[in-house]
Request: fold
Amino acid sequence: MSRPRKCRQIAGRPVARCFKPRGIPLGDLTEVYMTLDGFEALRLADHQGLTMGEGALRMGISRHTFGRILAEARRTLARALVEGMALRIENELSSLQQQPDRTTDRIKELSMTKIAITSEGPQLTDRVDPRFGRAGGFVIVDLETMATSYVDNGSSQAMSHGAGIQAAENIVNAGAGVVLTGFVGPKAFAALQAAGIKIGQDLGNMTVGEAVELYKSGQVAFADTPNK
Reply:
């Protein structure tokens, strides 16, 4: 079981919450996310020049945790700069979006032998739902035993925004390390990647059982970029 998340003291707030390359519409960019604790660690270490110990003391956390948060924030910033992505600083993005202490704990719980398939129903004979964020649900298959369970995704379907991120959270909660689906948008893709979940796309027009067999035969390639 993961340890309870310790409250962090955050004294600084970003003047702007989103940064993007000039001349490219935000809708055409993939976004990466940094939480406020990551922003605070960057502010203390790289802007104010505090040591690890001083920064940890300011945030009310251990030196190890401060170093981990700072390293992840720096990687996120570097990725945005190198790959030309939009950087968004968020107050909360559940456990999936670059929140190192919780995300790392959750990754340890994921199983690569347990896969999630977006589905129109709870059975292996149901069709793969090509929509990731607004899929009817997820059939969870344990490849070692072939036992199945079903995760309803109705709460994500009802959301006007953030359906993909909520759907990714549902998969993490189910302990699946792989998701098979049709189409994944940029935000949902980033959320799944941040949680350490492997993504198989373009698997529409087949049943859930057929998608499972395709994966077991090694014919599903993991995606590097979203396809929506």
About this structure: The chain has a mean pLDDT of 82. Strands lie at 18-19, 31-35, 86-90, 111-119, 137-142, 147-152, 176-180, 198-200.
